[in-house]
């Protein structure tokens, strides 16, 4: 039990420093005999416990950001997630997410784990996240992190911070880079081209398509070679619809993305990342 008097000024000071609720601040100071720093640590520990207790909750809302370094050689996309859109639309939470992104860019961060160890004004981001969690009472965290390094990286944020896209190109092309990023946001390709589709994705699609063709009553009694040929054609259609370069360009459906890139100065896409809520 505390042997010192906890004043309203003490509680307000701790609340301003941590963002925690008044009752939590009063209890933190009481439990720690008025020691301000110990009370801050107590609140952080409380935040960690809250995170554990809420581990079964789904944090499907949040703020998605995408940003490049000043030289456009590196791009980072990340999601600072929360549970409700009420929190995700709050200006303070958006600013909090932006400060994390700025720290990621400034410190040349390569992973979410590394980012959590970066300090902002002397505090680790992991601790700041716990403080924010204690303040708002929702499960939050850096749930997604992607990075691209290329000769030129374009970034794009879609739908009020609900999706972010990075595109790596072989040379500077701001307008074309944005166009391609918007294509990726809208059409969600699985890879740059057919050759870069993961082998497991190809195998899964091929198995599904082959089973569908074989199950068609019209194919009853047909030789396996014919079924295989038809399935191969349908797999080709899958590549056309789901790989970036083969897709119809959203701003001009008469040409493919590959055609657009060639017309824009023989541009080549090395890689892309698409980060969305959910």
UniProtKB/TrEMBL annotation:
InterPro entries: EF-Ts_dimer_sf, Transl_elong_EFTs/EF1B, Transl_elong_EFTs/EF1B_dimer, UBA-like_sf. Residues 84-87 are annotated as: Involved in Mg(2+) ion dislocation from EF-Tu. Keywords: Cytoplasm, Elongation factor, Protein biosynthesis. The keyword Cell membrane does not apply. It is found in: Cytoplasm. Pfam families: EF_TS. Residues 78-278 form the Translation elongation factor EFTs/EF1B dimerisation domain. Its main location: cytoplasm. One of its GO terms (molecular function) is translation elongation factor activity. Belongs to the EF-Ts family. HAMAP family: EF_Ts (MF_00050). Associates with the EF-Tu.GDP complex and induces the exchange of GDP to GTP. It remains bound to the aminoacyl-tRNA.EF-Tu.GTP complex up to the GTP hydrolysis stage on the ribosome. This is Elongation factor Ts.
């Amino acid at each position: 039990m505390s042997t010192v008097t906890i004043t309203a000024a003490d509680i307000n000071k701790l609340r301003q420093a941590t963002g925690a609720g008044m009752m939590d601040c009063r209890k933190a100071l009481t439990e720690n005999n008025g020691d301000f720093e110990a009370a801050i640590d107590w609140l952080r520990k409380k935040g960690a416990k809250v995170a554990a207790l809420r581990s079964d909750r789904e944090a499907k809302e949040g703020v998605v950001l995408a940003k490049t370094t000043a030289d456009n050689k590196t791009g980072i996309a990340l999601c600072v997630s929360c549970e409700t859109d009420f929190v995700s639309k709050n200006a303070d939470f958006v600013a909090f997410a932006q400060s994390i992104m700025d720290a990621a860019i400034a410190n040349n961060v390569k992973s979410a784990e590394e980012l959590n160890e970066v300090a902002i004004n002397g505090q680790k981001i992991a601790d700041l996240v716990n403080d924010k969690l204690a303040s708002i009472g929702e499960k939050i965290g850096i749930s997604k992190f992607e990075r691209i390094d290329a000769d030129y990286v374009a970034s794009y944020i879609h739908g009020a911070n609900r999706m972010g896209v990075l595109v790596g190109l072989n040379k500077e092309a701001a307008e074309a880079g944005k166009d391609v990023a918007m294509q990726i946001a809208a059409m969600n390709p699985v890879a740059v081209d057919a050759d870069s589709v993961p082998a497991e994705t190809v195998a899964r699609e091929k198995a599904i398509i082959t089973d569908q063709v074989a199950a068609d009553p019209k194919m009853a009694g047909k030789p396996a070679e014919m079924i295989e040929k038809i399935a191969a054609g349908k797999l080709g259609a899958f590549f056309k619809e789901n790989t970036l370069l083969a897709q119809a360009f959203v701003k001009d459906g008469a040409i493919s993305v590959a055609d657009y890139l060639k017309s824009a100065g023989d541009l080549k896409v090395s890689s892309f990342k698409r980060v969305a809520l959910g």
